[in-house]
Amino acid sequence: MIFPYQCLVARTDSDDSNKWTVFGASGSKLVAQSSTGATSVWPQQDEQQQQIVSAEHGEPPGKRIKLSPAPTERGPNFSSIILSSNGEYLIGVTGEDKCIRVFQVDKEGQFQQLSERCMSRKPSSITLTSDDFTILCADKFGDVYALPLIPSPNDEPAENPVVTEQPVDKDFTPSATVLTVHSGRNRRTLEEQLKQKAKGPLKTKEAMTFKHDLLLGHVSMLTDLAYAKKGNRSYIITADRDEHIRISRGVPQAHIIEGFCLGHEEFISRLCLTPLKLLVSGGGDACLYVWDWQNYRLVERLPLRDTALQHRKARSDLSPSLPDNDQGFKVAVSGIWNIPGLDALTNAVLVACEGLPALFEFEIGSNAKSATTISLNGNALDVAFIKGSDNSCSIVVSIDNIHKAGSTTLVRKDKIAARLQYFSKQTDGQWQEDEIVGKVFVGFAGQGSLMDDEATNGDTPIGNGADQASSEKKSARDILYSVENLRKRPGAEE
Amino acid sequence: MPHAPAKRQKREEYKNSLHTNEQNAALPKKKFYRQRAHANPFSDHSLTYPKSPADMDWATLYPAYASRKKEQAPNEGLQILNDNDEEEQRNAIAISKDVKIADIGCGFGGLLFAMAPKFPDTLILGMEIRTSVTEYVQEKIRALRVQNASTNGYQNVSCIRANTMKFLPNFFQKAQLAKIFLCFPDPHFKQRKHKARIVSYTLNSEYAYVLRPGGVVYTITDVRDLHEWMKEHFEKHPSFERVENEFEDGEGEDGTGMDECVKIMRTETEEGKKVERNKGMKFVACFRRVEDPAWP
Ligand SMILES: C[S@@+](CC[C@H](N)C(=O)[O-])C[C@H]1O[C@@H](n2cnc3c(N)ncnc32)[C@H](O)[C@@H]1O
């Protein structure tokens, strides 16, 4: 079977607003689908696979695909993909090798890889400045780096205003002596350091040899970042696992913190700026928070958990069924997206939570406390928006075809579950499944990274055994579901 | 460790005995509060901290400055407000003055106890990550307040358990503080632990955030490398400038013109005294918060 699309993103053609391209990452592969019907894949496939795909012509691939490469042969998996605002560049982050790859994508959606830069810490989120010149990369260590989108040959390699890891100096003499170092523990570390010195410098395999500037940092895992421009001022907004949203000035004054939006009581996992100058944040809390972020003021809270619980209760098709006690029901926000195409005075977002087969639409800044729910056949993974020239809006939703709807551990029995669903917004504001949009995606729907079928057999919860199949299950789960893991566990002490 | 339970029990008994009488004026004994030297600033300690500075219960820490009496006796320590009656609770914890001086990693509190009488009208807060060390300082403050009840002494000093490297902006508003002390911080010699240091380019942005322009970060250490590290990271941070020589060292033998707080920091911290006894070196460096540049 084919791995689900863990990431999706869409662009509208700059010359012809009726044309668009949707990009998806399925495991280690990138796939593009253009409105004209063309599909392309990165990395280029081998011939055998291409034949199969053309023979099937987008039929949901069944058992016939037995050419699955061993999971170990698969490249690193994408954890996020974004597009430049002109749509010309796609930037993909892969988790295992911590790399940022930049692709040029032509009108037909063909990929040409321009660069590959491996960070020393795993990136958790990236964004671009509004001029498309600079990639901002937030990492799990808490730091934000700026990298030029297109490295210039004139860049000083690794020019950095700040030495993050001090190079180990061969002539380094710890100036602390046994006399001046007071604690026994420090003394032992000092001795270790002297020993290390005798052995020679530590291997610096982590050194980044390309231009990267450290802009700011939290002493916490960063989970998302956003870039905003208001008039001449630019801002970098960062969110961390310890409930902080920080507003900093943009480059070259990114060391100045303007303020914080504080109020979350659980980790924050996603930020979303709305056209109405509001910021929506979500994570492990029961509510989404809406901020007038330039004044660090909370505008409203939206009842995400209650909405999700209501939906969950109404879905008799889901297993396992909910425990009698609702108190334990928690949400972990995995996506917040602006819905384009609404009139200038209303903003709305779509929200996805980990392991829930639904999307929730909330109006922002209007004190409307109820949501519109889109029910899905499987857990929502990502959403891409296709905006028509007539202000119409359709969405492509990627669905987890491995796990059961409503569960992040139980494996589905139906092997041919659809990996994508399509909806269009009706004039009455409701979302309706849209077959016509779906027809364009036949090529896209048949592409992606192949999975070992063994991995998805059986009903055992994922990640229980030590065999290869179960390790692939485990890795599939890690790729698709990492947000709930941010929650702090009570009792995890010093 | 076969003796551990017995030791723990002794500690418990001792601490309970202190609490049987709130008017007990005896100073706490340090030996019952010692704790392993290093705490990991990255881990999820079961810390209590306010959601934001507005949610901080300062009145419990500085009862003499509470501007409105509480309806109910507060629980021990900090409280995180729930959403109901948020306004009301905020009123209840209003305080007539803001904390202006923070001693980060205050240890057993030597600096706090020396500063309190010198700045009787300024609220001073010690922040310490180790539970038991924090308890010692809190107990000592309680005892000193009882001893000095007639003069209202030590009402201006308090201490909380906090991981300042993560949560400083939860406690203080922008530009609230006038002085921050970083006295004898843990050196974290290991290369890979450098982000664990309490001074770094990126963390200095948070010190700049809570300090008012003109405010000062005071640092002192006996470890030359750490001194160089702190100097490097503050000097390259555009929000700080090094203070004048005189401020740190004074002039001549008697150090005329030396900043009052530098004097205290050199002599009154526990670590400072230890280094003195060992005839070790002390390196001082202080940095002034400059005004933010214009923003287009
Ligand atoms: C070497 S002691 C110095 C104590 C005191 N300042 C003195 O000079 O005597 C360093 C103190 O910093 C505390 N500390 C380390 N990291 C901290 C953090 N992130 N937040 C608060 N305190 C911290 C340690 O627990 C320790 O008590």
Automatic annotation (TrEMBL), chain A:
InterPro entries: Trm82, WD40/YVTN_repeat-like_dom_sf, WD40_repeat_dom_sf, WD40_rpt. WD repeats lie at residues 261-301. Pathway: tRNA modification; N(7)-methylguanine-tRNA biosynthesis. The keyword tRNA processing applies. Residues 452-476 are annotated as: Disordered. Its main location: nucleus. The keyword Membrane does not apply. GO terms for cellular component: cytosol; nucleus; tRNA methyltransferase complex. It comes from the Eukaryota. Keywords: Nucleus, Repeat, tRNA processing, WD repeat. GO terms for biological process: tRNA (guanine-N7)-methylation. It is found in: Nucleus. Required for the formation of N(7)-methylguanine at position 46 (m7G46) in tRNA. In the complex, it is required to stabilize and induce conformational changes of the catalytic subunit. Belongs to the WD repeat TRM82 family. This is Guanine-N(7)--methyltransferase subunit TRM82.
UniProtKB/TrEMBL annotation, chain B:
Belongs to the class I-like SAM-binding methyltransferase superfamily. TrmB family. The lineage of its organism: Eukaryota, Fungi, Dikarya, Ascomycota, Pezizomycotina. InterPro entries: SAM-dependent_MTases_sf, Trm8_euk, tRNA_(Gua-N-7)_MeTrfase_Trmb. The active site is at 186. SUPFAM superfamilies: S-adenosyl-L-methionine-dependent methyltransferases (SSF53335). It catalyses: guanosine(46) in tRNA + S-adenosyl-L-methionine = N(7)-methylguanosine(46) in tRNA + S-adenosyl-L-homocysteine. Its EC number is 2.1.1.33. S-adenosyl-L-methionine binds at residues 105, 128-129, 163-164, 183, 269-271. One of its GO terms (molecular function) is tRNA binding. Catalyzes the formation of N(7)-methylguanine at position 46 (m7G46) in tRNA. HAMAP family: tRNA_methyltr_TrmB_euk. Pathway: tRNA modification; N(7)-methylguanine-tRNA biosynthesis. It comes from the Eukaryota. Residues 1-34 are annotated as: Disordered. This is tRNA (guanine-N(7)-)-methyltransferase. One of its GO terms (cellular component) is tRNA (m7G46) methyltransferase complex.
